[in-house]
């Protein structure tokens, strides 16, 4: 683990990830006092359901307190520079979860904060979502290495974190997306480097069926993320061949279907599939809580690695 923060999956080793998943599994259904006397602040520039609630409940389950601040209350980069916000928070609270439009904002906060800063979502990554997804897969399949995860749709922040995490722990990762929305080369390079060590096989294709065939996990996400609303009409056209429906899922009959939610049924996923027997979307949502508990407990101790 690099430093005190969790900003990117790239900062984690395979051992860090394994330790977090083991710890999260152990903490399911339990409560503790690891955060007794501590307060976690949630600074969100974007709306949230799962991220906010799971972090707030996680803090309470560990005996701590949480404090939520909306964009209007802080005005990051407008009313006050991120460097000042970081230093003020460092004197008030013990940890900071940030949901922001720009990865650079996270990095600036972490640079100037003396407390742990956790990425609750940025334009570049969603590490806690990806780690909770791996926890879900591990619970369902009893292993990670050697499994195949096929992501169909936009190469967005969730896809980026899943690619990096999969490559580190030996999960084969297939990405099917239109060429105009392909994964950036820097992330692909990082993933290939990690895969060379873990044995993960990576596939990047425009063909959704090629990506999905024989997969253990089929994963999709919204075609238009927050902040991209002006592109929604064009994106629906560009991704029209990438809907996960019964026909596509037939290429992976034993796969489980994953989606981070919220979903747009009828766009990236057919409604009957989203609610069908292969779907594990609510297990994913629950595991955000357990993973967040592990992240908070370990970061407050200054250690994300295995104990």
Which keywords apply here?
single chain; 307 residues; alpha/beta; Rossmann fold; five-stranded parallel β-sheet; 13 helices; globular
The shape is globular
**Helix fraction bin:** 40-55%
pLDDT average, as an integer? 94
Q: Order of SSEs, N→C?
A: HEHEHHEHEHEHEHEHEHHEHH
Q: At the third CATH level, what is the topology name of the largest domain?
A: Rossmann fold
Number of strands: 9
Content-based structural category: alpha/beta
The major beta sheet can be summarized as: 5 strands, parallel
Helix count equals 13
Radius of gyration using CA atoms only = 19 Å
Q: At CATH's second level, what is the architecture of the largest domain?
A: 3-Layer(aba) Sandwich
Task: Estimate what percentage of residues fall within beta strands.
Answer: 5-15%
Description:
With 307 residues, this protein is an alpha/beta fold. It has two domains: 9-126 and 288-300, Aspartate/ornithine carbamoyltransferase (Rossmann fold, 3-Layer(aba) Sandwich); 127-284, Rossmann fold. It is 43% helix and 14% strand. The chain contains 13 helices and nine strands. Strands 7-6-5-8-9 form a five-stranded parallel β-sheet. The chain has a four-stranded parallel β-sheet with strand order 2-1-3-4, with helices on both faces. Helix 1 (14-27) packs across helix 13 (281-300) and helix 4 packs across helix 5. The protein is globular, with a radius of gyration of 19 Å. The two termini are 13 Å apart.
């Amino acid at each position: 683990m690099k430093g005190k923060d969790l900003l990117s999956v790239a900062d984690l080793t395979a051992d860090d990830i394994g330790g977090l998943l083991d710890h999260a599994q152990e903490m399911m259904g339990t409560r503790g006092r690891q955060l007794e006397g501590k307060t976690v602040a949630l600074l969100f520039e974007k709306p949230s359901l799962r991220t906010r609630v799971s972090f707030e409940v996680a803090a309470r389950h560990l005996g701590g307190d949480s404090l939520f601040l909306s964009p209007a209350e802080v005005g990051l980069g407008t009313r006050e520079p991120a460097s000042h916000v970081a230093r003020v928070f460092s004197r008030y609270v013990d940890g900071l979860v940030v949901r922001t439009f720009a990865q650079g904002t996270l990095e600036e906060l972490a640079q100037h904060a003396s407390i742990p800063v956790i990425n609750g979502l940025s334009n570049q990554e969603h590490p806690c979502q990806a780690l909770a997804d791996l926890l879900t897969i591990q619970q369902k399949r009893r292993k990670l290495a050697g499994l195949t995860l096929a992501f169909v749709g936009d190469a967005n922040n969730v896809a980026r974190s899943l690619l990096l995490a999969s490559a580190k722990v030996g999960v084969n990762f297939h990405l099917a997306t239109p060429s105009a929305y392909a994964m950036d080369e820097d992330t692909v390079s990082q993933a290939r480097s990690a895969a060379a060590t873990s044995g993960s096989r990576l596939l990047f294709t425009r063909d959704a069926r090629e990506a999905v065939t024989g997969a253990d996990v089929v994963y999709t996400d919204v075609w238009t993320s927050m902040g991209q609303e002006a592109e929604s009409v064009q994106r629906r056209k560009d991704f029209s061949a990438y809907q996960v429906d019964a026909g596509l899922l037939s290429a992976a009959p034993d796969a489980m279907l994953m989606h981070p939610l919220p979903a747009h049924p009828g766009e990236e996923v057919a409604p009957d599939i989203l609610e069908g027997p292969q779907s594990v979307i609510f297990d994913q949502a629950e595991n955000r809580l357990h993973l967040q508990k592990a992240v908070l407990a370990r970061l407050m101790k200054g250690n994300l690695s295995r104990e």
